[in-house]
Amino acid sequence: MPESGSAGTVQWSALFERVDDYNLSLQGRIRKMLVSAILSGHLPPGAPVPSSRELARALGVARNTTVFAYQQLVVEGYLESRERSGHYVAKGMANQQAVPADAPAAAPPPRTGADWSRRLVFHPFSQRNIVKPANWQSLPYPFSYAQFDAKQFPTAEWRECCLRALSVLDIRMWAPDLIASDDSALVEAIRNQVLPRRGIWAEDNEIMVTLGAQHALYLVATLLIHSHTVVGMEDPGYPDARNIFAHRTERLIPLPVDDEGLIPSPALRECDYVFVTPSHQCPTNATLSMERRVALLELASRTDSILIEDDYETENRYDGHPSPALKSLDKHGRVLYIGSLSKSFAPGLRLGYIVAPRELMVELRALRRLMIRHPPAYLQRAFALFISLGHYHALLRRLSQVYAERAQVLQEAVRTHLPQFSGRPIHGGSSWWVEGPPYLDTDRLAQAALQAGVVIEPGRVFYQDPRSQDHRHIRLGFSSIDRDKIAEGIAALAGVVAQSSR
């Protein structure tokens, strides 16, 4: 490393190459390089920096590029300009820099030997979860569910909304601390453009934005579920919802599902709450029939129970006619409705919402304030623009068509290469629940498939009983795999299946 205080010994071209953020302009990369050198202590206060001409020559860029970079760093207080002398690191940086590399090392803190496992009141790491390889994006055949597809991301439209949210008037709306409130523009967009498409009408004070649907589930569980509460869970069902509820109560009742979704059973009468995914049952993708929806609502009214509806992938019906939300049929306030705004768009955005009666919403907002106050207001404003300008529903329509094409290719590929596998026809969503032959162990299959570059999700994790004998199901997601790669990936999976059956 170069010595502190000697700008002349700094290998500027080498430092510049380390700034590998190629999304930045040349000027931006130069500023990032200099800021890093200053804050790390390699350029101490008062040290000279090369002239703009010298630095431009060393980096192979136009002199104006370095001139503008220096000017901006002067404005921001990193450099100071001395007439007829050049630029120097500002003296005010003395308190901003890291400890010099040659400073004596501080003594390590004494090890207390605390037994953290004994102190923990909850062990979330030990819960069973869906596991995806960290490098799934680099593998050729990612049949992972609900993952990002860069080719489908509406870059220009999203960038437009982000830039609009940076207007002076918009900044004044989202920059202050909203405390327990949400961006009014996003709440209005959800109320007037998102919910009506699901047949739901709600007031502003009945809608709250969350960091994804999972955050909404955690808030509901924290407020409403205690150790004696009985919660009914679809089985197979959403593992993270099950884990959230299991943190609050051990009284989870597995409720079987079939081709029409949740099966009406006497066990429902014992439940204080029932978690249900009626539009696209997780993970089987079955749609709850209208007859069962009505029966479920009537039972909830008679038994004084509450239905928690996770209405994910609501718009992804390939026939263009999504089934009405369970909440839209609710006449007695028995449904807590949870939705996601970003699952189909970009899961990393983490935006969802909950619709609940206002007396409960007051407590939900107070609890959310304790946790995070509110989701980032800038992100809320940008997404509000994304919806109001028509980009959101245009994207959902396009994704529905893309998923329909991929679903057809996937089903044909499985019939061709894996005829011993079967699944109900896909009518919506972005995944397929498939059953293999009796001899198959899909946990082992998933591990072996990774060696062939194929990512699949074994089905056992979706069942409540960790000793479940269901070892034949897999979930094949197709939101992040190219259409042209699907058949090739299934053929590769078929080779793994053939090898494992020997």
UniProtKB/TrEMBL annotation:
<dbReference type="InterPro" id="IPR004839">
    <property type="entry name" value="Aminotransferase_I/II_large"/>
</dbReference>
<keyword id="KW-0805">Transcription regulation</keyword>
<protein>
    <submittedName>
        <fullName>PLP-dependent aminotransferase family protein</fullName>
    </submittedName>
</protein>
<keyword id="KW-0804">Transcription</keyword>
<dbReference type="InterPro" id="IPR051446">
    <property type="entry name" value="HTH_trans_reg/aminotransferase"/>
</dbReference>
<dbReference type="Pfam" id="PF00392">
    <property type="entry name" value="GntR"/>
</dbReference>
<feature type="domain" description="HTH gntR-type">
    <location>
        <begin position="24"/>
        <end position="92"/>
    </location>
</feature>
<dbReference type="InterPro" id="IPR015424">
    <property type="entry name" value="PyrdxlP-dep_Trfase"/>
</dbReference>
<keyword id="KW-0238">DNA-binding</keyword>
<keyword id="KW-0663">Pyridoxal phosphate</keyword>
<dbReference type="GO" id="GO:0008483">
    <property type="term" value="F:transaminase activity"/>
</dbReference>
<keyword id="KW-0032">Aminotransferase</keyword>
<dbReference type="InterPro" id="IPR036388">
    <property type="entry name" value="WH-like_DNA-bd_sf"/>
</dbReference>
<dbReference type="InterPro" id="IPR000524">
    <property type="entry name" value="Tscrpt_reg_HTH_GntR"/>
</dbReference>
<comment type="similarity">
    <text>In the C-terminal section; belongs to the class-I pyridoxal-phosphate-dependent aminotransferase family.</text>
</comment>
<dbReference type="InterPro" id="IPR015421">
    <property type="entry name" value="PyrdxlP-dep_Trfase_major"/>
</dbReference>
<dbReference type="Pfam" id="PF00155">
    <property type="entry name" value="Aminotran_1_2"/>
</dbReference>
<dbReference type="InterPro" id="IPR036390">
    <property type="entry name" value="WH_DNA-bd_sf"/>
</dbReference>
<keyword id="KW-0808">Transferase</keyword>
